Amino acid sequence: MKSTTKPPEVSLLDHRIGLRNGSTIALEATAKRLQSAKISPPADMRARVEELSRENGHLRREVQFYRDCFDLAQHFRHTVSNISQQLQVAYYMDAVNNEDAIEFSNGLATDLRHALEHLADDQLGIEKSWLEFWEVEDTEDEYKNGI
Predict the structure, then answer these.
(1) Distance from C-alpha of 80 to C-alpha of 111, rounded to nearest angstrom
(2) How far apart are CA 87 and CA 77, in angstroms?
(3) What is the pLDDT of residues 75-118, one digit of tens each?
(4) What is the C-alpha to C-alpha distance for residues 39 and 36, in angstroms, rounded to an integer?
(5) Which of 10, 123, 134, 143 is the most buried (most CB within 10 A)?
(6) What is the full DSSP assignment across 11-26?
């Protein structure tokens, strides 16, 4: 049975890490890296153990990065779900007077905007931490140049 799972696509973050000779799962799954791994002569046992230990540490850090991203997404999903439920209850129960409907809607829109801002700030912090791990400086030039 053939597996239909594709390797992850290389993201902007992966690319930036790769430019600093770092590695991520997405970078390791590229055809170039896979071919290189097949061709490279096996290192001596001590060097190979050190290499695998380093790689293990990098993978653990990458897993933590994605766990943090998942936690943020779950928190945001919960917030949006609560706002959606408030809207549904207000609609079905006719719980908001027509005079208060605009204020109620604006309050929920503000809650949603704050949740988005919180998500964006937290994502930026997680990404910054990930880049610091790889000793990548976060520069605006890289964003502007698409690197």
Answers:
(1) 9
(2) 15
(3) 999 999 999 998 888 877 776 677 777 788 889 999 999 999 99
(4) 5
(5) 134
(6) PHHHHHHHHTT---HH
